[in-house]
Amino acid sequence: MDEEKQTTESSPAESYTVVGVRFKRAGKIYYFDPNNMDLKVDQEVIVETARGMEYGKVKIGPKEVPASEITPPLKKVIRAASEKDKAQYLENKDKEANAFRICLEKIKQHGLEMKLIDVEYTFDRNKVIFYFTADGRVDFRELVKDLASVFRTRIELRQIGVRDEAKMLGGLGPCGRSLCCATFLGEFDPVSIKMAKEQNLSLNPTKISGICGRLMCCLKYESETYRESNQMLPAVGSKVEYQGKEGTVVQINMLKETLVIQFPEGEPFEVPLGEVNF
């Protein structure tokens, strides 16, 4: 009797259809279940979140993503935003401005060492969130009670860092352009002094720090390219050959693709990278 052969086909990895929704201009993009709706990029929608109903804008159209990229359970898009929803959203913005003024007065009355940065109403107005900065811990329990008696809804005071403060307030960077974090960066990437070293930048803190006082986010943009290029270039202090003479690399200009070489005799001079043997 012939031996029976069995083949086992591996089932494809589970995937989900999602849309990416953003709630603030440069906020993080979150995945939601489109709920069988035909949603377009930049369409305004009402979604269900852990905070309740929220008003957001679709920034990534429907697409398939593997299960590993989402955190279940996936919340659903409730509906496309109507004119009534938009009117409520704009009314919430007006309420936020008034709440900011009231909170400033209450902070002053309680004599608290804190700086109010922003106020946010959830779309359904079930909660008001007050964002602030402070040098240390702040006992704001009495302030919360006072605010709750005024607004008669749930109150949350959230302490944020200086990078989040810059993101919320905006401003101009040393380059003269609007801050990256306030215009398009959804999340903050880790930035290190090593990135500045790899790009041969001045290590003067005033030259590589943003208005938040932390290392500039843009140090991250080209760090990988510089790191890859550095692996293919001779290191400063290494010996190279140019026109049959051996010299020492004293400086590398990656953008111009040149090396500054010091020979035993004479002054150091700049030569094209392609003309050097190393």
| Run of helices and strands | EEEEEHEEHEHHHHHEEEEE
Gyration radius, in Å: 28 Å
Number of helices, counting only DSSP H or I runs of 4 residues or more: 7
* Order of neighbouring strands in the sheet with most strands: 2-1-4-3-5
Report helical residue fraction.
Answer: 25-40%
Gist of the model:
This protein is an alpha+beta fold and 278 residues long. Helix content is 26%, strand content 29%.
Structural summary, described in words:
By secondary structure, the chain is α+β, with helices and mostly antiparallel strands. It has helices at residues 83-110, 141-151, 162-169, 180-183, 193-198, 205-208, 223-232, and strands at residues 15-22, 29-32, 44-49, 52-66, 77-80, 115-121, 127-133, 154-159, 239-242, 245-253, 258-262, 269-272, 276-277. α1 (83-110) packs across α2 (141-151). It starts with 14 loop residues before the first strand and ends with a strand. Mean pLDDT is 89; it is low at 1-11.
Key words describing this protein structure:
about 280 residues, alpha+beta, five-stranded antiparallel beta sheet, 7 helices
Fold topology:
Layout: E1 15-22, E2 29-32, E3 44-49, E4 52-66, E5 77-80, H1 83-110, E6 115-121, E7 127-133, H2 141-151, E8 154-159, H3 162-169, H4 180-183, H5 193-198, H6 205-208, H7 223-232, E9 239-242, E10 245-253, E11 258-262, E12 269-272, E13 276-277
Parallel strand pairs: 7-8
Antiparallel strand pairs: 1-2, 1-4, 3-4, 3-5, 6-7, 9-10, 9-13, 10-11, 11-12
Helix pairs in contact: 1-2
